[in-house]
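In the design runs reported in the main text, the only information available to the sequence generator was the tokenized backbone. The following block is the verbatim input for one such run; it is reproduced so that readers can re-run the procedure and compare outputs position by position.
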């Protein structure tokens, strides 16, 4: 983990209101892995301004980039930063995605700009899989060219029908899974004449995470879910980003998305109102 002021090299419009910012941070770049995040504060703001977490999107030998959409005070302030400016970053933080098993076929499922860390994952994966991107409209469909450049087949669904399937991405995913049934058991799929273990990687809103977890449980296959939670400190102290999980021995406890996550084994997640209520109380305290 590095704490530093990083110089903004590029800051560009990504279309649809989304933006990409590239910073020079060689120490961060060298240690970053897919699924980790940066905790960013605009240096020009006062010291009391909270940092904001952003998933790492792309990495080179010396640079790191994030993708975001200005929706609040922190991200709006970031949108005003120009090339040559300084931003304060802590990172890379969190536990990222594990690499896919050699016998497995990675299926990436993204909602909105949850596609950013999955693009990073695909760029580091020694195995080529398939990616499913869901969005409200065509302007919210991101990173398709990233995956195509890596020869990953891309499947898109939009709620308004402006690109790809008219509907939600799990409908497209279910049809694909049915078409690639290996016949032996639900955890295996057949692709190009070979059978593989199915392994999900997902980043997006909770509804999508829960839908993928449900499919992984039904098929008894591995799934890794990346959670987006409000964060205060980003280093595990404030407890604003907790998620209820079940440990291997069956005990239920709380995990911090900034330290034990943001990526969790889907089998460990406990979905209930109690978790949401506690998170709300911690944020409002």
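Verbatim output:
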């Amino acid at each position: 983990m590095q704490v530093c002021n990083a110089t903004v090299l590029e800051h560009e419009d990504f279309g649809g209101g989304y933006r990409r910012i590239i910073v020079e941070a060689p120490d961060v770049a060298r240690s970053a892995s897919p699924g980790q995040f940066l905790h960013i504060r605009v240096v020009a703001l006062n010291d009391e301004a909270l940092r904001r977490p952003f998933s790492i999107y792309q990495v080179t030998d010396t640079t790191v980039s994030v993708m975001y959409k200005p929706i609040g005070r922190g991200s709006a302030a970031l949108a005003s930063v120009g090339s040559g400016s300084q931003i304060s970053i802590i990172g890379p933080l969190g536990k990222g995605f594990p690499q896919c098993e050699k016998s497995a076929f990675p299926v990436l499922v993204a909602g909105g700009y949850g596609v950013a860390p999955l693009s990073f994952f695909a760029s580091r994966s020694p195995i080529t899989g398939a990616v499913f991107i869901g969005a409200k409209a065509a302007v919210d469909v991101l990173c398709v060219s990233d995956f195509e450049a890596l020869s990953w087949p891309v499947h898109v669904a939009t709620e308004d029908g402006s690109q790809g399937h008219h509907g939600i991405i799990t409908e497209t995913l279910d049809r694909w899974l049915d078409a690639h049934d290996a016949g032996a058991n639900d955890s295996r799929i057949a692709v190009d004449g070979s059978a593989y273990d199915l392994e999900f990687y997902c980043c997006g809103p909770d509804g999508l995470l829960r839908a993928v977890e449900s499919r992984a449980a039904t098929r008894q296959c591995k799934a890794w879910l990346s959670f987006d939670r409000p964060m205060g400190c980003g280093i595990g102290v404030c407890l604003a980003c907790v998620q209820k999980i079940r440990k291997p021995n069956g005990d239920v406890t709380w995990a911090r998305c900034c330290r034990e996550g943001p990526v969790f084994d889907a089998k460990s997640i406990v979905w209930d109102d109690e978790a949401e209520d506690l998170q709300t109380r911690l944020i409002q305290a």
